[in-house]
Amino acid sequence: MSIMRNIYLTLVALFLIGPIVVITSVSFNSKNFLSFPPKGFSFRWFVEIFANEEWFSALSYSIIIAFLSALLAVVTALPVAYAAWRYGIRYAKALLSLGIAPFILPPVIMALAFLLFFTTSGMYGWFVSVIISHTIFLLALPLVTISLGLESIDRSLLEASSTLGADDKIAFRTVILPLALPYVIAGFAFCFVLSLNEYIIALMTVGFTYETLPIKIFNAIRYGYTPVIASIAVLFLVINVVIFGLIARFGNLPRMLGALED
To answer: Which residues of the chain have pLDDT under 70?
Structure first.
């Protein structure tokens, strides 16, 4: 039984790792076309991402949108989650549920809703439109991670800080925020990574006015397949691995994913 289990797990691992190996090897291809096994070895396609104005512009747009969307999502989620945890305010809990709701819907439904709204309001194609859309769509992530972080804080610390003369603002700044900071950073990282890879909402809100990397890849595929696409996939993979690796190293990843503490 153990032999069959090991064989099964090995096959599953190969199935999951196989595409990554193929894409990674293709990204180092020295020819002007996708080929596996690769023809030669070269870093030229990774250099092309930064040397080519169109690819670098798309990368810049993606990073700016992802950073601002993640920042706005965290700034919005933190006070709501704190109010719901600290004071049990009814409307704060309602906002918490409302913030999680968009993430339940399929992205294409949300994208169509954003398209209708921004077209009606005359904001279609604005750079700020995709930032607002990503913020709303990804708001659930920091709401959940920050709420989990706050729930893990011992409330007796608030009583101790109050006994020492700290008001609510000082207690939040000196006690609550430092303890919840890993969860805040985790929420930001989750939003950043998903926004960086998001395609359909960006396409529906700004179209080709501001090409993010996923949109640029889609447009490039229509005219041919070049190894630079594989290089971008590897770059995204490295970014994701580094970000989630740091979260796992310095944060309580099982708790952030909803696991109950002993």
So the answer is: 1, 33-36, 38, 88-103, 159, 164-166, 224, 249-262
Which residue, 196, 56, 218, is CA-closest to 130? 196
58 vs 199: CA distance, rounded Å: 12
Task: Return the exposure string of 99-138: e unless at least 16 CB atoms fall within 10 Å of the residue's CB, then b.
Answer: beebbeeebeebbebbbeebeeeeebebeebbbbbbbbbb
Cβ atoms 41, 57 nearer than 8 A: no
What domains can be seen in the chain, in order of their start residue? 43-256 (1.10.3720.10)
Query: How many degrees, rounded to 5, is the angle at CA 211 between CA 200 and CA 28?
Result: 95
Integer Rg of the chain from CA: 22
**Could you tell me if 44 and 30 are in contact, meaning their C-beta atoms sit under 8 angstroms apart?**
yes
DSSP string, 91-120: HHHHHHHHHHHHHHS-HHHHHHHHHHHHHH
Could you give the CA distance from residue 201 to residue 190 in angstroms, rounded to a whole number?
A: 17
User: Which residues, 6+ apart, have CB-to-CB distance to 205 below 8 Å?
Assistant: 111, 114, 115, 118, 124, 125, 129, 130, 133
Q: What is the pTM of this model?
A: 0.81
